[in-house]
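User: Last request for today: this protein with protoporphyrin IX containing FE, please.
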Amino acid sequence: MGSVVATVVGPTVCHRCESSHRAAVNWGTLRYRRVIERVNPSLRLEAGRRYVDSAWHALDIQRKVESMQTALERPSLVPTGRRVPPWWWFAAVLALSIAAYSLRIAFLGEQAYTPELAPSFRERPLTVAIHTLFGPVALLGGLINLLPGMRRGRMWPAHRWVGRAYVLSALLLAGAGLSMAFHAAGGVGPQAAFALLALGTLAATVQAYRHIRAHRVRQHREWMLRSYGLIFAAVMLRLWMPALMMLVYDGQFIPAYRWAAWLAWVPNVLVVEWIIRRGWRPAFILRDGFAAAEPAQS
Ligand code: HEM
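Assistant: Here's the final one, the structure of the complex with protoporphyrin IX containing FE:
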């Protein structure tokens, strides 16, 4: 977290106590600074002023910034009034379609295998079944827990149960995915891409779980975003494949697959890191003393 400092320094300007007060808020390194700016734009101006007219004023700026950071970092303190965001519906339609596609393979087995992948799948039907059965659970579970409403106080029990199902499914699907990765079609490129994807998913999910067991909410949220960004590769792969096959490779599966195996998850990782660094914006209503502040719109 960026440092927030408000110190009392130097001689004589304050008409109350006859000293000069310095409010030095290291704005550039503040976590959530964009959100803080949007909610309370005047705070940035106040914080930027090196000298303010009272010790109370300097400490007040510090208190406001810290309190806003706390509010943003602890979802339990953040009642959300926001409805389901538009991006969620879009992601839900995609995730539901891919979940149905995957479950079809899990339940129908061999009849539903993609022809180009069928020879490899026939050699390990149980691994494929585990992968295609738990894939949809993680894909849909993660999406449900991303709903703002699932982080409201009364929804915590549901959030935790969905979260447990997500973690278990993510570990199973990625474990199966890792063993399938060594036999993936298209050679060493896709094999490396899927193996790294599986290892990344396992690591991010374990990290997210460890952090919440230790009540580190912010780190939990960040690692869950990373984990879900990787799981969402299942959706992106099935968007890239038809696009590449139709637009670039004249209907050929394998050349498109070589690119799609990487494109399915590398951009997701970059987008998630960008979201985390910019300060993720959960819906929130600020606590004490921020009655004038508006909840963030996005
Ligand atoms: C995030 C980690 C994941 C990894 C590492 C992974 C890895 C793999 C691998 C290696 C294959 C076989 C590719 C081949 O033989 O060429 C595969 C196929 C498949 N995966 Fe995943 N996968 C992941 C996530 C998911 C999720 C979340 C779902 C479901 C929603 C899913 C559904 C499928 C399906 C349906 C297939 C069969 C391929 C097809 O016919 O299109 N995967 N996956």
